[in-house]
Amino acid sequence: MSIAHRATGSALYAGTLLIALWLIAAASGPAAYETAQWIAGSILGRLVLFGYTFMLLHHMVGGLRHFVWDLGHGFDPQTRTNLAKYSVVVSGGLTVLVWIIALTR
Amino acid sequence: MLSNSSMRTPLGRVRGLGSAKSGTGHFWLQRLTAVANLVLTIGFLCVVLSLIGKPYGAAIATLAKPQVAILMLLFVVSGVVHMRLGMQVVIEDYVHHEGLKILAVMANTFFAIAVGAACAFALLKISFGG
């Protein structure tokens, strides 16, 4: 899970380029924004955004686990295993929740 | 384990800001921005969700609202500072060639600043027009 935290962090690092491009498109005018929205709404675009959402939330929930450790708790093997399981379940659940909201709007 | 090249005790060597001369600054800023990102990311997701299905004019009007623009700016700044620190640790762990490591750490800083500046400029342009 620690390597997953690094992997998701590295993916989000590259993903900031997408946020920058999207904001630049919005700042450039209606035509550029429509193009950006079209790309984001395509099947490939949605797959990338779904992956981005999961990695963002996985990194966020994984970060909470690091706060627990930073405060000096949760170092025993059982708690570590549980935290790893919870982080996948919670981040997966939050991702599905965000996408239910996104697709029903 | 200890080098004999110095007469100084281990405690003497780590006092003040330690061998890296920056003390716990990196560690602390990583945690500080992590706490900020926790709140700001939730805000960012809410903004993005609120923009779904909106035509250009309405989306721009939302992004230009002061509370939205300020949230987005804070998200971008805290985000790029956090990712720069995180990537620096990854580089220092995996790149062992000294020259290459310095170049990678420099490139990392340039990337973070460039992305941060691009996002900030776009957000300000949306807010102030022109």
From TrEMBL, chain A:
Among CDD domains, the record links this protein to: SQR_TypeC_SdhC
A molecular function (GO) term: electron transfer activity
The highest taxon in the source lineage is Bacteria
* Cofactor(s), names only, from the UniProt record: heme
GO CC entries? membrane
Q: What is its main location?
A: membrane
How the cofactor is bound: the record states: The heme is bound between the two transmembrane subunits.
Record-listed heme binding positions:
H59
Task: Spell out the PROSITE patterns in the cross-references.
Answer: SDH_CYT_2
Tagged with keyword Heme: yes
The portions of this protein that span the membrane are 12-32, 38-57, 83-102
Topology of the protein relative to the lipid bilayer: Multi-pass membrane protein
Q: Kindly list the biological process annotations in GO that this record carries.
A: tricarboxylic acid cycle
The record's subcellular locations are:
Membrane
> Is the keyword Lipid metabolism assigned to this protein?
no
Q: Which UniProt keywords apply?
A: Heme, Iron, Membrane, Metal-binding, Transmembrane, Transmembrane helix
Family (UniProt): Belongs to the cytochrome b560 family.
Job of this protein = Membrane-anchoring subunit of succinate dehydrogenase (SDH).
What interactions and quaternary structure are annotated? Answer: Part of an enzyme complex containing four subunits: a flavoprotein, an iron-sulfur protein, plus two membrane-anchoring proteins, SdhC and SdhD. The complex can form homotrimers.
Under which name does UniProt file this protein?
A: Succinate dehydrogenase cytochrome b556 subunit
UniProtKB/TrEMBL annotation, chain B:
Q: Which GO terms describe its cellular component?
A: membrane
Coarse class of the primary localization is membrane
Recorded topology in the membrane: Multi-pass membrane protein
Bilayer-spanning residue ranges: 34-56, 68-90, 102-124
Organism superkingdom: Bacteria
Give the pathway annotation: Carbohydrate metabolism; tricarboxylic acid cycle
This chain's protein is named: Succinate dehydrogenase hydrophobic membrane anchor subunit
What is the source species? Bosea lupini
